[in-house]
Structures are given as C-alpha cells and as structure tokens.
Amino acid sequence: MNPRVNEGANRSALLAWACGLYLAHILLQGKIALSELSAFWAIFCLGWAIARGEARFSFHILYYPLLVYGAASTLSALAASRRIHQGAEGMLWFKMLIFPAALILFRHFPKLRERTIWAHAIFAAGIATWGLFQFVFLDRRDLEHRIQGPSTHVMTFSGLLLPLSLMFLLLWWHERKPWQLVVTLVVTLTLLLTFTRSVWLGWVAAAATVLLMTRARARIALYALPVLILFVTFLPLSLFSRLMSTFDTSQSSNFDRIRMVEAGVEMIRDHPLLGVGPANVKEVYPLYRRQDAPRPRPPHLHNNVVQLWAERGILGLAAYVLLLTLFLRECARARRGPQRMWGEIGIAVAVSLTVAGLFEFNFGDTEVFYLMLNLFALVVASSEELAEQPEPRTNELRTPLVATSA
To answer: How far is CA 161 from CA 107, 169, 254, 269, 330, in A?
Structure first.
C-alpha cells in the first residue's frame, strides 16, 4: 500500500476522532464523568495530531488568564496548611485545556462550529425536557423538591441552562430559524421552573445589557418593559413569592449568604495573598462563622469574587477578572464587525454567568466551568475574520468511522 495514502488516512482519522469526541463531550455535559472522559480523549487525539505535525497549535490572548489561574491555584494548594485538594488541582490544568483544544479544532474545521451549535441544542433541549418531565409527572414543584434534570444539584442544572437559553434566544433573534425558537422556549421555561433566583437575575441582567447596546434600545425597551411587568404580575404564586424573596434579607438563605460574605472577608484579611487553599473554605469556615449564621459548614461562600480571593488568593481573583475582561473586549470588537451576533452572544453568556456568580460559586462548578469555556471558544472562533483562519488540513470533516475506513 502507498505509505503516503496510509499517512493521509491516519491524519484524517486522528483529527476526526478529536472532533467526534469533542462533540460527545458537549452532548454528555449533564453527566460529568462521561463528559470529562470524552474531553480527555479529544484533547489527547488533538495533542497527538499536533505532535505529529498533522495539526497546528494556535494562540489566543485568553490563554494568559487561564495560565495565571492555574498557577495561582496550584501555588495556593501547595502553600495551604491543609493540602486536601492538592492532587485535584492537577485536574484543573486539564479542564482548562478544553478551551485551546476547542478553539484549535474550530479554526481547523469551520464546519465543526455548526455541528457544535446543534450538539448544544440537543443537549439543552434534552436536559430541559428531562426537567419538565420531573416537574409535570414527578411532582417536583416546590423548593423542597426542585427539578434538577440529569444533574446532581439544581444549581448545576440551572447553571447549565442559563447561558444556553440566552445563546439560542440571540441566535433566533438574528437568524429567525424556528428550531432555535423552540429550543429557546423549552430551555427558558425550564430555567424559570428551577426556582433559582441567581440565574433569573443573571438572565435579566444579560438580556438588559444586550438590549441597551442595540441602536433601537429606546423603541425595544418601550415594549419590553410593559411585557416584563405583565409577566411578573401574572406569575404563578409560587414563582412570584420566590422572586419577591430575593429582596428579603431576613429570609434564611439570603441571610446565610450575607454571613458567608462576611466570613469570607475575614478570611481574606488573614490570607490576602494565597488564600486558605482550594477546598479549605469549608474546613476553616467554623473559625470565621458568625454565631447566628444558619449553616455551620457550607461547601463554599456562594460568591465567585469572595470565594476565589478567600480560597486562592488575590492572583486567583485577578485571573478570573482578567479572563472576563479580555473576553468581553473580544466580544465588543466582534460587535463592530460582521459577526455582531456572536459578539452579543458572548456578552450575554459572560454577563449572565458573572451576575449569577455573585450569589453562587458557579465558576467552581465543573459542569458550568466546562460549558463556559466551550461557549467562550465557540464565540471567539465564530467572531474571527475568515481571512485570519488557517486553512483546514483536510477537505472536509469526516466522522471517525468514515475516516478509519478511508
């Protein structure tokens, strides 16, 4: 057999496997073990292809804050008096590799972006339908029995739904494809039924931010505000009560969050540079807890900013802020070009997760962290000018089965 033909077939198979496994990672985001396993093999196949010269490594400025965050986390784990999470911090470096891996694949295979959008649509509609089934048929309709889809916790479930709801809403707003509207309605309805106030606030903040950036913002706001008022007015009593409880500081979970922030501030004062160490907040919380705090040992401080600084030090917080700042800068540039839609999607994703993260440590939720990096990579790759894209190494993206049999 001609060795050159054999080499070309292997190259196609290796990169196609990386793409196929990456799509599997997207589809399996609701089950973290399977999703991480797919991500590992996708990254492995891509790394192998790059080592063999069959794919080309490409750089992006967002690599810098991710590197700083990894370094700060590792340093904090090594310096902590209790190193209960030192080994797990090695996995953080692997998790962050999903961003460069996705970006490189998107740049080499532009068609993969469209397939990834479909994969996100299938995933979002699937877990949302799962949640609706729980609400309708399993009678999980109150705070004690909230829907959580395939996830282990309602906060993870709602954290996955939040950015996807906004992405498909903006896709439909710009492209007007019926399937996008169907996905938007199903996912947004499920998001509402999770009774999760932080994601509600994140959704509204993101939608308002995008609205204020449009040229017709005054005209759109003229219609949007009355619709919002009517929507809130006619909410079912359970949802309306949950929404109103957001502003009640005496409510147990709200008061507990205030006490967590106060304890976090004290931790920061004692450990401003390196923090108390990853996963150590729960261990040291009793030392800083106010006597009237409802929970004795919460797993985290329910606030990205306070948690990151208290846990990983000032450098960890700076990396988080820099990541969001640089990404939003890329989105602002995209809005001024032909990829305005993707600039708005990126802004909506970043704003929604940031606002929700003021009331929940979603940056530390593995499933949400993966989804955020995947969406960041999709937005960045889709926002780039075609002239800046490297030429794909193969004529088309083939499935692993086809590539292997070539």
So the answer is: 26, 12, 23, 35, 24
φ, ψ for residue 235, nearest 5 deg = -65, 145
Q: What is the pLDDT of residue 240?
A: 87
Give residue-wise pLDDT tens across range 192-217.
999 999 999 999 999 999 988 887 66
Q: How far apart are CA 323 and CA 331, in angstroms?
A: 12
pLDDT digits (tens, 9 = 90+) for 61-76: 999 999 999 999 999 9
164 neighbors 345 (Cβ within 8 angstroms): no
* Gyration radius (Cα) of the chain, Å: 22
- At 196, the amino acid letter reads T
Three-state secondary structure of the chain: CCHHHHHHHHHHHHHHHHHHHHHHHHHCCCCHHHHHHHHHHHHHHHHHHHHCCCCCCCCCCCHHHHHHHHHHHHHHHHHCCCCCCCCCHHHHHHHHCHHHHHHHHHHHCCHHHHHHHHHHHHHHHHHHHHHHHHHHHCCCCECCECCCCCCCCHHHHHHHHHHHHHHHHHHHHHHCCHHHHHHHHHHHHHHHHCCCHHHHHHHHHHHHHHHHHCCCHHHHHHHHHHHHHHHHHCCCHHHHHHHHHHHCCCCHHHHHHHHHHHHHHHHHHHCCCCCCCCCCHHHHHHHHCCCCCCCCCCCCCCCHHHHHHHHHHHHHHHHHHHHHHHHHHHHHHHHCCCCHHHHHHHHHHHHHHHHHCCCCCHHHCHHHHHHHHHHHHHHHHHHCCHHHCCCCCCCCCCCHHHHHHC
* pLDDT exceeds cutoff 90 at 389: no
Is pLDDT of 231 > 90?
no
Q: pTM for the whole thing?
A: 0.91
Q: Where are the domains of the chain?
A: 1-56+401-406, 65-389
